[in-house]
Design brief:
Elements (H helix, E strand, L loop, with lengths): L2 H16 L7 H11 L5 H12 L7 H15 L8 H11 L26 H14 L8 H18 L6 H15 L2 E3 L6 H12 L4 H10 E3 L2 H8 L8
Antiparallel strand pairs: 1-2
Helix pairs in contact: 1-2, 1-4, 3-4, 5-8, 6-7, 7-8, 7-10, 9-10
Pfam families: Fic
Protein name: Cell filamentation protein Fic
InterPro entries: Fido, Fido-like_dom_sf
Amino acid sequence: MTPAERQSAVAFALRNLFLDDCHPGSSILEAANDFVAGRAVAEELSDQAQHLEAQTSHGNAHTDALFLRTILVCERPWAPEGDLDELKAIHRRLLPSLSEGRMLRRTQPDGGASLYPASMLEHGAAAISQELAAKHNLVSLDRPVFVDSLAHFYDELSYLHPFADCDDMTLRIFLSRLSHDAGWDLDWGRADPGAHRRAIHRALLGNTDELRALIAGMVRPVNPTRIFLIAGWDQGPAH
């Protein structure tokens, strides 16, 4: 990775935690800064994450490990697939010590939350994957169409809620990978945690207006020079 790519990975990892009201400790932030500066390599971050995952008494160990694991997901990319296997691969990279049997959500949440039936998660994920494939994983869409489509799939995936742990973080990584492959990047730094939670909640209740507005404020072209100078802001990579 280039220094800019390492810095981007660390910034994304920070924001992905922040949107869930989690914050890594100062010593782990120092380790991330060493990684950005080239004073530490990915293997050292992996070793630190593994050490943190083995701790049970350190209150912030889980958050610190998730921060490092998210950086490593960005550092070691693979081709997006747009299906449950990709979601599980992301989740496994975030929580490598979690057994396969505990990965997927097996029960409905308390408090009356409306989520997809846990007993049918594989079926629901397959339907979303097929719909994504029919839309060519959102490749070559103009910006307004892409925003509407991504809001739709974010809502669908939030309703699916496939994982009992780290579901939201996993979905944000999945959507970021999907968007980048389609020619758009998501600037999660523009999303306020409270507004983000409210938008997801209202989308689950049937109103996706706030979610679309949230995404519209985050979407930017992967190749801004080409978009701005050749195609225009609202036209996508196909032009």
